[in-house]
Design a protein that fits this description.
Elements: E1 3-9, E2 12-19, E3 22-28, E4 49-54, E5 63-73, H1 76-92, E6 96-101, E7 107-116, E8 120-129, E9 134-144
Antiparallel strand pairs: 1-2, 2-3, 4-5, 5-9, 6-7, 7-8, 8-9
Length: about 140
């Protein structure tokens, strides 16, 4: 009974979840990009390990949401191995994927993998950033309450 849309782009993603006329969106953007603050529920810097949970505040709310964010700095060799493994993972799981070369010609990758259930929408994102050999991973769940 819900509707979900997903977009992936260099260094970020947008996932929109809607049910019963209510809409909640998770957006991961690169530092320096700006979004309107109207309707902003929470802003979470994607550095280190973080968790956030949003429970309905009254009986008219019908969306629950939880997310975890982890970043990891890798060595050059481990970054390239992880990049290749994530490319294989995206192909095997038919995940939404965008790979691109940065201004130095280095490989970067963003992957969004989803699982759809009757009352829940689960998704994991992986953003591999070559300039700092970093992997940003999010795991999130939208739930119809």
């Amino acid at each position: 009974d819900y509707e979900a849309e997903i977009w992936v782009y260099p260094l970020g993603h947008v996932v929109r979840f809607q049910i019963d006329g209510q809409c909640l969106t998770e957006t991961v953007i690169q530092e320096g990009d700006h979004l309107p603050e109207h309707g902003l529920v929470h802003a979470l810097p994607c550095l280190g390990e973080k968790e956030f949970e949003l429970q309905p505040t009254d009986s008219t709310d019908s969306i629950g949401y939880v997310t975890t964010v982890q970043t990891e700095a890798l060595t050059d060799n481990l970054y390239l191995t992880t990049y290749r493994e994530m490319m294989d993972f995206a192909k095997e799981n038919d995940a939404l994927c965008h790979d691109w070369l940065d201004e130095t010609g280095a490989d970067n990758l963003s992957v969004l993998d989803v699982q759809k259930f009757q009352k829940e929408f689960h998704f994991q994102s992986y953003h591999l950033i070559n300039s700092c050999n970093m992997v940003l991973r999010t795991q999130s769940i939208f739930e119809s309450i």
